[in-house]
């Protein structure tokens, strides 16, 4: 991250040239579209005081995005000669990023040139400019303005203050369209921050209060799911992470944090019989005291017990920058991190139809950047099954529908007290994107599903040419989690499945690194080329439109890929074998010099 202190000067110089007042472009406020929906879920504290800080994030138009995309596919495809030839972050910056001159010109145009007639405003841009930073890839500029300055700079009438119920953290947003000079608008393709919709607040995890006691029969092997069960089911019982450079992470959004006390108790209850770390190795952001969140407790406990003895990061986005879009902030932070964690398990999703397509497109480029660096990004597929819009169409979740990430769905043991076969669970987010086309890597297997499923929903409920999700699935219910020093049973959600798959992939990375081979990176092309390495799940279905007289179910699991369980459940030994074979075939010698 770089501070742009020289900027005020630039603005002042151009003012001396007395440039003509420039036409302004109107930039839409995404928040405006969501004002009503957002204000129902958030406390609106009224008009923002003039000295509050409003954050704006500008996505500079990147260079060579087509080349980046080509590299992304090549380094991820086991059949490409470039498989595993990942780029360094500096190479990414060089490929897509802009230079210092471009950034300064953008900020000068944004804040300076159009204020030449007005001494006061020139002064203002000088003050404001010192608060802008650019990420190390040189493709995102983040500016902090006082509300007073932002109103004048962008011709905004009013900012509102919002607060998440039960929290003290404030978010500043405006419903106004931004008016920015056309020459500056031509240099960017996205503006976020104070014009973004507020982050999703709905709690994804739930606690299922179903009483096990009533149904317990003979031969009970386990009540609820805990590490020993998960480790046995996916055949990692005897695995231990060993490579010092291996790493995994659970980024957290919206004030979810963990407590060491919870981890300590979790290890006492569920940490026997395998080597594991006692503590998180690296915390990003300031994790406050107070109550821990169930999501953060679950994520840390299950990624550390599945990816046991692997260096674990806890990436606490809300502690880094207030008021922004925590998800975007995480990606920007990731682009600034020279040695980021190799496997990242995120429980974050939103309705695809509520997210600005420009934003999704831009974020896809961030996903490509991560994949091109050899990072694996996993997302929970969502907990509403196929979803439902107005009772007549399914509602896909994003970023589950991004073709550039791996999406993890939810399953359940068919016999809940046995460690055996699983079935698709009704909450499991799955379906087809209404925005993104089906990527090459899944075409054959998805076509096979569409051609053979006997229980397809009505045609107008989904778009069968869209990206199908999830890609893989793991057990999602009856988890034991220690939260605020209390063992809580029945924790349920695909955000439980996601860290489990992350830990398993992190073990594969461990073997790769120990053999001096590159990490997995974006893993979908490898998985879809080796479906036999994954345990197929052929039963179950996900929820659809509950109230519909036509259809209350989404899709049905069946042999092969399906939009409930993807390719199926992980099985460590077989996945390890195909991952090692693929890497060894290309990389007798690694790293290559590039
Ligand atoms: C994985 O473990 C199960 C038992 O849980 C076993 O039946 C299966 O053969 C194992 N798979 C492999 C590939 O080792
Ligand atoms: C745990 O991982 C570290 C490297 O991070 C390694 O040095 C150590 O030997 C591992 N422990 C075991 C029991 O394998």
TrEMBL record:
SUPFAM superfamilies: Protease propeptides/inhibitors, Subtilisin-like. Its cofactor is Ca(2+). Keywords: Calcium, Hydrolase, Metal-binding, Protease, Serine protease, Signal, Zymogen. It catalyses: Release of an N-terminal tripeptide from a polypeptide, but also has endopeptidase activity. InterPro entries: Peptidase_S8/S53_dom, Peptidase_S8/S53_dom_sf, Peptidase_S8_Ser-AS, S53_propep, Sedolisin_dom, Tripeptidyl-peptidase_I. The keyword Hydrolase applies. Pfam families: Peptidase_S8, Pro-kuma_activ. Its EC number is 3.4.14.9. The keyword Calcium applies. Residues 39-197 form the Peptidase S53 activation domain. Residues 1-16 form the signal peptide. PANTHER family: PROTEASE S8 TRIPEPTIDYL PEPTIDASE I CLN2 (PTHR14218), TRIPEPTIDYL-PEPTIDASE 1 (PTHR14218:SF15). Lysosomal serine protease with tripeptidyl-peptidase I activity. May act as a non-specific lysosomal peptidase which generates tripeptides from the breakdown products produced by lysosomal proteinases. Requires substrates with an unsubstituted N-terminus. This is Tripeptidyl-peptidase 1.
């Amino acid at each position: 991250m770089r501070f742009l202190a020289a900027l005020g000067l630039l603005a002042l110089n151009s003012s001396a040239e007395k440039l003509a007042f420039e036409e302004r472009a109107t930039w839409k406020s995404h928040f405006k579209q969501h004002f009503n929906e957002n204000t129902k879920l958030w406390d609106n504290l009224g008009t923002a005081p003039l000295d509050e800080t409003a954050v704006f994030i500008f996505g500079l138009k990147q260079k060579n995005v087509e080349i980046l995309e080509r590299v992304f596919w090549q380094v991820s495809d086991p059949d490409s000669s470039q498989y595993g030839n990942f780029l360094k972050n500096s190479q990414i910056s060089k490929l897509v990023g802009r230079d210092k001159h471009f950034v300064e010109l953008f900020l000068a145009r944004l804040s300076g040139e159009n204020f030449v007639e007005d001494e006061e405003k020139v002064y203002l841009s000088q003050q404001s400019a010192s608060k802008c930073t650019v990420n190390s890839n040189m493709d995102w500029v983040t500016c902090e303005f006082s509300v007073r300055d932002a109103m004048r700079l962008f011709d905004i009438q009013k900012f509102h203050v919002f607060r998440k119920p039960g929290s003290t953290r404030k978010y500043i947003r405006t419903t106004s369209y931004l008016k920015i000079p056309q020459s500056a608008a031509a240099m960017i393709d996205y503006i976020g921050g104070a014009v973004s919709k507020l982050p999703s607040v709905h709690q994804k995890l739930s606690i299922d209060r179903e009483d096990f006691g009533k149904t317990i029969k003979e031969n009970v092997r386990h009540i609820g799911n805990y590490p020993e069960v998960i480790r046995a089911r996916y055949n990692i019982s005897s695995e231990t992470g060993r490579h010092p450079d291996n790493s995994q992470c659970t980024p957290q959004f919206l004030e979810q944090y963990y407590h060491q006390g919870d981890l300590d108790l979790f290890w006492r209850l569920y940490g026997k019989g395998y080597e594991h770390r006692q503590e998180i190795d690296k915390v990003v952001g300031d994790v406050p005291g107070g109550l821990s969140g169930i999501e953060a407790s679950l994520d840390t406990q299950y990624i550390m017990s599945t990816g046991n003895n692997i260096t674990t990061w806890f990436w606490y986005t809300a502690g880094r920058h207030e008021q922004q879009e925590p998800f975007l902030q995480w990606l920007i932070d990731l682009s600034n991190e020279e040695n980021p964690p190799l496997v990242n398990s995120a429980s974050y999703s939103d309705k695809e139809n509520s997210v600005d397509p420009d934003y999704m497109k831009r974020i896809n480029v961030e996903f490509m950047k991560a994949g091109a660096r050899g990072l694996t990004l996993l997302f929970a597929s969502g907990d509403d099954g196929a979803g439902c819009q107005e009772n007549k169409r399914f509602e896909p979740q994003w970023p589950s529908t991004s073709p550039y990430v791996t999406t993890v769905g939810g399953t359940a043991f068919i016999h809940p007290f046995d460690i055996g076969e699983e079935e698709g669970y009704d909450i499991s987010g799955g379906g087809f994107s209404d925005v993104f086309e089906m990527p090459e890597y899944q075409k054959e297997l998805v076509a096979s599903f569409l051609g053979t499923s006997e229980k397809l929903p009505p045609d107008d409920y989904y778009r069968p040419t869209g990206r199908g999700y999830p890609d893989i699935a793991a057990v999602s219910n009856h988890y034991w989690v220690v939260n605020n020093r209390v063992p809580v049973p029945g924790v349920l959600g695909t955000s439980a499945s996601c860290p489990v798959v992350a830990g398993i992939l992190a073990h594969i990375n461990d073997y790769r690194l120990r053999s001096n081979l590159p990490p997995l990176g974006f893993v979908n092309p490898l998985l879809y080329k080796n479906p036999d390495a994954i345990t197929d799940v052929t039963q179950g279905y996900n929820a659809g439109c509950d109230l519909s007289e036509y259809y209350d179910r989404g899709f049905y699991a069946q042999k092969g890929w399906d939009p409930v369980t993807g390719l199926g459940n992980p099985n460590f030994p077989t996945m390890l074998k195909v991952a090692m074979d693929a890497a060894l075939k290309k990389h007798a010698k690694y790293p290559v010099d590039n």
